[in-house]
Design a protein that fits this description.
Blueprint: H1 6-9, H2 12-25, H3 29-44, E1 49-52, E2 55-58, H4 64-83, H5 88-105, H6 107-111, H7 113-127, H8 185-189
Antiparallel strand pairs: 1-2
Helix pairs in contact: 3-4, 3-5, 3-7, 4-5, 5-7
Length: about 200
């Protein structure tokens, strides 16, 4: 028997969820969703008829066609944000403008609900930016990757304490000729120093 592959070991729901999460992460998903939700009440309320018992309440106005156009455009812009990420800035600005126009045309922007959804969706689309996948850092001369901690060097592994004491006295080397540094004996005996002067006392 062979071991199961990772794709076979997980369930169908988990694979679909991971695939959807990967698809969602590469596009302004929430911007498109809010824009879609904003277009629904703006297009729906002017054509809706509510019934309270035997009484019918119609909210249709003369600007019903304008509300329908704004709602359809917002839904289209929401889908554009999902499937055409390159036009997300244009779609976001257009969604904000249509949300502001709906305040006057479509029953106060679909009773403020559609206005808020479209405004938030447009703002999210304008501010969204695609992320960059993590790139592997090249290996350096020590065989580490990027800024990974390196092993201690053999020269610096032993740390020496730093003190304020002066360095110990070191005796001069034995092969060094010290006769040049001393005064010749004949100069002291004759009462003259090495420079040719007379020695007093």
């Amino acid at each position: 028997m062979s071991a199961e592959t990772p794709d076979q070991s997980v369930g169908t729901f988990t694979r679909l969820r991971l695939r959807f999460r990967d698809w969602r992460g590469r596009r302004p998903f929430w911007a498109g969703l809010f824009t879609l939700l904003g277009g629904v009440p703006i297009a729906y309320f002017p054509y809706a008829t509510l019934k309270l018992g035997t009484m019918s309440i119609a909210m249709a106005t003369t600007a019903g066609a304008g509300s329908l156009i704004i709602g359809v455009l917002l839904v289209t812009l929401g889908l554009t944000m999902w499937f055409q990420q390159a036009t997300r800035v244009f779609a976001g600005v257009a969604a904000i403008v249509l949300a502001l126009v709906s305040l006057v045309v479509s029953n106060i922007g679909g009773f403020i609900l559609g206005f808020l959804f479209a405004l938030i969706g447009g703002a999210l689309a304008v501010s969204w930016a695609p992320g960059e996948p993590p790139r592997r850092q090249p290996l350096d001369e020590h065989g580490t990757q990027g800024d990974a901690p390196q092993a201690a060097d053999s020269d610096t592994a032993l740390l020496r304490p730093v003190t304020d004491e002066p360095a110990p006295y070191e005796a001069p080397e034995s092969d060094r000729d010290a006769s040049a540094e001393r005064t010749p004996e004949n100069a002291w005996a004759g009462g003259e120093d090495a420079s040719g002067g007379s020695r007093v006392g």
